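re the bet — no i am not wrong, look at it urself. input seq straight from the record:
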Amino acid sequence: MKYLFPSKRFLRKFFILGFSLMFLTQFVVSQTYFCDLEDSVRSDIWIGQQTIDSGWAYSGSFISITDSVNPYGLGVEMPFPEEKKGTNTWVTVSGWVKSSASFPHALFVVTVRESGKEYFWQGIQLDTLITTAEKWYKFNGTFKLPASLTRTGKLKSYLWNAGGKDTVAIDDLEIDFAKVVNPSFLPDMELRDERADENNFSELLYINQFYSLWLEGNPQRLVVAGKDGKKVVKALFSVTDLTVNGNRIIEQTPFVLKSTITKNGGAELFFIARNEYSVKHMTLKCFTDQPEISVEITEKYRKEIVCHRSALVLESAQQVTEVFRASRKSDTAVFQDEYWLAQQGVAFGEDGHSLLIYHTPQVSSLQLNTKNNWLAINLDYEKDHPFLHFPLDNDTTDYKQNWSASTYRKGNKRVNLLSIYVGVATGSLPRFMKNPAGFLATYIWTEHADFTEIRTNRASYYGSEKINNPKDATGGFIKYNIPVTKSVFYDNPDKITNTEISNGVFTGQESAIRTDKDFHDFLEQISSRDIEICLHTPEQFTTTPTRLKKALKFFRGHYGSVSWIDHGYNNHLENNREDLMCDGLLKRSPYYAARLWKKYGVKYFWNAYYEDYFTFADWKFDSSIEPYYAGYGDFMPKPDYWRHPTRSDNIIHWPTSTVLYISNDEMWDYFFNEQNLNDFVADWSVEMNHCYPAWVNPQKGFWTYDTDSVIVAQPGFNRTLERMASLCERKELNITTVKEFIDYQLKLENIEYDVLSDGRIRITNHNREDVNGLSFATKAKTILVDQQKPEQKIYGSDLIFWFDIKAGASRIIKIVD
């Protein structure tokens, strides 16, 4: 556990901003609307004109005056400017205000509404600004609004005299709109200056009924044409971003044809891209009667390097027609400039000159530039597998190293596979959902073990400290059937107490299995109620190899634990050196733990990179429970889980982005209200939270005292769980555990997705077990699975459907329309 954010007090339901906000992101060309009330005032955007009067104005002769009769003054109500629609936008409001009294209860309010719903409300507080009566003061505030709202939303801002007992005036109101400069994560490279419709092919390499492969130009490059002869791929090349001997090197290398083998109407084409640091061998396998081109890329390193990115870039001659997004949604009309697609895909062109890439579990990720119609197929990309390390150093604190980039030695190899489909019409392609059985979004509660006590555990899980049987639960996780990944301590050899943390309220030892029988019995009860029990390391401080082995063996035998949550990571010797983020992976360290993790089946590890680097801190929106708000766009790499190619073998990393602290009961409704939860579902979001429900200090927000001084679950916490349970019952929000979620994702990796020559999709289950409720989404109106209509539902413009598939079996999906 590391403290990331202090608990904060909120004075009211809405955030009230200070009169001046500053942001580091650079502004670009802006559009400004100004009203000084002197000339003809446009009635179509400026509101509150009934309050205009002559008087001592800041400029000119007219001002807007508010009082108890007219509490709402000058403001603006308008759609976003055409040039800013569908972009992340800074909105800056400023003006001059004065009052008949000092410290008036007044605000300048900024709201955004869309489709009848209010998605944004913030107020610039004026009472602390106006400290002297009848004196003009300038206010200003800047707000970042997401592209999802600026496209069709309407901005409304106005002076609000909330107190009403004093007069408050406003003059010279200005509204400024400026596009947010989004960071780009695309590879740095140069494209050829070539027209896409110049079909000056020079040497035919292979042709079938769906496509043809050619060499073109000087120097020669591979191009692909569809069945109608139009180009679909006009270039394929290698991009590498490396650090070698401390020097950052970015290179772009063409693929050169080495040889071709033809057999039974098919062909294998062998290409090579070579530079000083590595050699990429690319094999294209073509089949006589199939639209598929199978791609295998083997990269062998010639020197010791740090790899920030190794990619194959595909430049399409056709326009993007559908984007298969990381969220599993798809875009078919309005496209973002840049997408990080995880391992999903994209379609270019249509009919005989179409190109499709979808479901690529054996590459690192895909990134798309829609303006120039090119796709980066990342073979290894550091943003896909973030990692951090706290080296042992007793002379420092909070020093971390970024271990995200892969490190390769001379002779190391990496193999990546994917398939490209050309010249086949599929209709609206079925897309894998992240959840089974038609669920849309995912929420996972992950509890850290620090400083708990049996009474607070019972309160947060059963509703009251007085309840000791789950069937009698009156609140908490068990009452509402909410799964949790709950990490706990195995032992407490140092006899750590809760006295200091609880300010003397709880004086006993913190809960651990070996030293607290009641706690052990409690875990036995809840482990049968969809609660995943795992280690938060064996104890509060660095453990011994013997105790680590005993703890892992115990958890494997009692709970079948596969997950692990690091605790106490930092630089000192006592800072749980067996942690993943400390020395657990270092073979030469006395605290090396990876061998024991593997022996006892622990494979899903919490990774605190996003928390410690505050990766998404600038991309939260209002009270949304999405740490990175989906409405800002898909440019940001944000994997749900990952493997690190060179640091941690087959270990699966899973992230949290922030720590959930709820400062008072009302804040549960501020964050987890019905609209925010519905928006979370509508975005098909995934969130794994980091929380402390049973922490012995009530400031974490999960429990409180009732009128009889009994420890009970916080009412707002119960309301949140009840709302979540309702969404779960409707098969919209999948509330699950780390184990269940990642188990399903790994099953999806082992399902083969083949596009057949007639546009049907063949799904083959290569897992050793059945997959139940395998879910897809499509924009088609009707689909059949093995000529039968599967379970399905409509959500927005998507048809969601699901079915079971046995181990080793194949099923055929047919898109009817």
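see?? The two ends are 52 Å apart (CA to CA). told u. also Residues 203-426 form a domain with the Beta-galactosidase; Chain A, domain 5 fold (CATH 2.70.98.10). so pay up
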